[in-house]
Design goal:
The protein has about 675 residues and is α/β, with parallel strands linked by helices. The chain is about 40% helix and about 15% strand. The two termini are about 60 Å apart.
Length: about 675
């Protein structure tokens, strides 16, 4: 098998064996774990005799064989693999005894080192082995995997290529079952760009000898981003030790990531899960040099809510001290989480990709705005890069890369750079799901050049942090009402709770219920008839209130009920007297209440005089209600006005299309 796609196709075609016994959306639950199992089998092949010899020699005399077997399981260069299997079976010998293949395969699985058994436990592979055996498919599947053309030995398939095979299989299976194919991994072109952005020479020195750098992804999927980071560092300086950490919530994807890391010689124990990072941070005391992630878009965090809210109550002693967003989107929670993982005494850098929602959703005082406020006021946000649409397998929407750090270069202090890279793409020959565009190497370099340039042009905008902040000021206008009893205004009484409740009964006795409701309706009608005796229009609250109390004196209604009746019979009137309180202070009209978003750099009083008072001379600001908000309306900063087409041109096109339609109609009539 010469190329990557042939290997993927061969493994993909194995799913045909499962038709009838498995539903289409279950195929990956079998094919993926067996692909991983086959890979482990191939990797262990070289040192299999040495492991068996060590097991047989020391099994009866030493209680803890793990260190001995770990030392025996090595690759051709003598490097320990980090896992082992002490069973005498392998894929080839399993198919030589078809009558006992189920029990032999179970024994084979039980003979793996504990770290591998954890992987297959999360695949629930033993359940599928039993199910396949009952359907007489187990032998056929193992036999297919044993054929030479699907050789997954490291000599034939590199670790990098194996990871790519896993990702492609997941994407294809997810598309087939109508699941979100991009949920668990990010296209490699996007990963490459993000990797370059966090390692771009910007005050971080990776050229020193024998550094140790910790890299983390809180939604690591199959681990592609982590691997990309390590490869970048290795190419830059092979003496740097890059230690990879991650957490994944999906059981199968967690298992694949952990298997991939184990095969590559990484410490697979650093891959945590399967559990949600938001509610179950399994690396609570760790801080990292670099973080990179593609957290889920628009995903509800309802299942995490109790734990997240509890931690948010701890303020900045926890991870969510800046606030929590609305329940239907947890992207900003991942941002807070990653920022809490920055080192306190060293430089940390973050690249995270989101959709547009975290940039601007949420008004001043909301959780989203408060999180942005905290990020920007602490000068963590270095840049945002707006990417082209249709880059991802599961969505065609625009996405944005946030670059964050706790130690900006001098020239970027207090600044935020926006880069519009929406036109930096090439069209794909064949779309993959919703992915119709990709970033070529030239596109990626163009974007990096824009980022490094840090000079304004049509594609780069540079702002002060404060430029994205505003004060939301409440503007009040005085309550001015006229009062009149009309049939139309009397209808408003039914919206008054105390009035509508008159015709309701809480009695469970049907007869008594009907009686009380009838009496209530009668009282409602009596109130209306009493009010109709008032036939004058009033512009002063006090005068109208006297008339209302006089008309309804017999009903002995409460002051609150009286007030609501007055409001129900009122309408705004610019010529009416101001309604005042007991101290003569003008009361605000809640229906006319408005807000103004005033940029932080503006003087609020001057803005109010210029933008509000010329139109509403008696308005005032209630400064007790001021709220500071932050939002980044990315597209407005790069908006380019395009004048509408001339009417003559549009009219010409309409005439042309009309003529073509008439010609088609004429042809149809001629044929009939």
């Amino acid at each position: 098998m010469g190329n990557f796609q042939e290997k993927v196709t061969f493994i993909w075609d194995l799913a045909d064996l499962l038709r009838g016994s498995y539903k289409r959306n279950e195929y990956q639950k079998v094919i993926l774990p067996f692909t991983v199992l086959k890979r482990f089998d191939s990797v262990l092949k070289y040192s299999k005799p040495a492991v068996l010899e060590a097991y047989n020699k020391f099994n009866d005399s030493i209680e803890n064989l793990d260190p001995i077997l770990q030392g025996a399981a090595v690759d051709k260069e003598g490097h320990e693999l980090g896992f082992y299997n002490y069973s005498e079976y392998d894929f080839k010998s399993l198919i030589e005894d078809p009558d006992h293949i189920e029990e032999n395969l179970m024994h084979y699985l039980d003979s793996f080192s504990p770290n591998v058994q954890d992987i297959f436990d999360n695949f629930y592979i033993k359940n599928h082995i039993s199910r396949l055996s009952k359907a007489n498919l187990l032998y056929l599947l193992i036999k297919k995997f044993t054929e030479s053309k699907v050789d997954l030995h490291p000599d034939k398939v590199s670790n990098h290529e194996m990871g790519t095979i896993f990702e492609e299989l997941i994407r294809k299976f997810s598309e087939q079952s109508n699941e979100e194919a991009g949920e668990h991994f990010t296209p490699r072109d996007v990963v490459k760009l993000m990797t370059n952005l966090i390692f771009i020479e910007n005050g971080i020195h990776l050229k020193q000898e024998n550094l140790i750098k910790k890299i983390y992804d809180p939604a690591c999927g199959t681990g592609g981003m982590l691997t990309s980071c390590k490869n970048y560092i290795r190419e830059l300086n092979n003496s740097v030790t890059a230690v990879l950490y991650g957490q994944e919530v999906n059981e199968e994807i967690y298992a694949i990531c952990k298997a991939d890391m184990l095969i590559k010689g990484e410490n697979s124990d650093n891959i945590k899960g399967p559990s949600s990072t938001l509610s179950d941070d399994q690396l609570p005391d760790d801080h990292f040099d670099f973080m990179i992630s593609n957290p889920p878009y628009g995903r509800k965090w309802e299942q995490d809510k109790e734990a997240v809210d509890k931690e948010a109550e701890r303020g900045f002693d926890g991870r969510f001290g800046a606030g929590t967003p609305r329940i239907n989107d947890g992207q900003l929670l991942f941002l807070e989480h990653m920022l809490s993982k920055m080192k306190t005494d060293e430089k940390s850098r973050i690249a995270v990709i989101t959709n547009g929602s975290p940039l601007f959703t949420g008004d001043a005082g909301s959780g989203e705005s408060n999180i942005r406020k905290w990020i920007i006021e602490n000068d963590y946000l270095e840049a945002i890069i707006g990417l082209p649409d249709q880059l991802f397998y599961n969505t065609g929407i625009r996405t944005y890369i946030w670059v964050l750090t706790n130690e900006k270069p001098k020239e970027r202090l207090g600044k935020i750079q926006l880069v519009d890279a929406s036109t930096k793409y090439v069209k794909m020959r064949k779309s993959l799901g919703n992915k119709r565009h990709q970033l070529s190497s030239e596109n990626i370099q163009d974007i990096l050049n824009l980022y490094e340039k840090f000079e304004e042009n049509d594609e780069i905008k540079i702002f002060d942090n404060e430029d994205f902040g505003y004060t939301k000021v409440t503007v009040e206008r005085p309550l001015q009402l006229n009062f009149k009893v009309t049939d139309e205004r009397l209808e408003n009484l039914y919206a008054v709770n105390a009035y509508s409740k008159l015709a309701k009964s809480k009695s469970k006795d049907p007869e008594l219920k009907l009686k009380e409701e009838a009496e209530g309706k009668k009282k409602q009608e009596e109130i209306i008839q009493a009010l109709k005796q008032i036939n004058t229009t009033y512009t002063k609250w006090d005068e109208f209130e006297k008339q209302i109390k006089k008309a309804l004196n017999q009903f002995k209604i409460s002051p609150a009920f009286t007030k609501n009746i007055i409001l129900a019979l009122s309408e705004h009137d610019d010529k009416a007297d101001y309604v005042t309180d007991a101290k003569g202070k003008k009361k605000p009209d809640g229906k006319l209440r408005d807000t103004e978003k005033i940029p932080l750099k503006e003087n609020i009083d001057e803005y109010f005089k210029r933008e509000v008072l010329p139109y509403y001379h008696d308005a005032w600001m209630d400064r007790k209600k001021d709220k500071i908000g932050y939002e980044i309306n990315f597209t407005q900063y790069f908006y380019k006005y395009e004048p509408p087409r001339p009417l003559e041109e549009i009219e010409k096109d309409i005439k042309k299309v009309t003529a073509e339609i008439q010609e088609l109609i004429k042809e149809d009539m001629d044929e009939t």
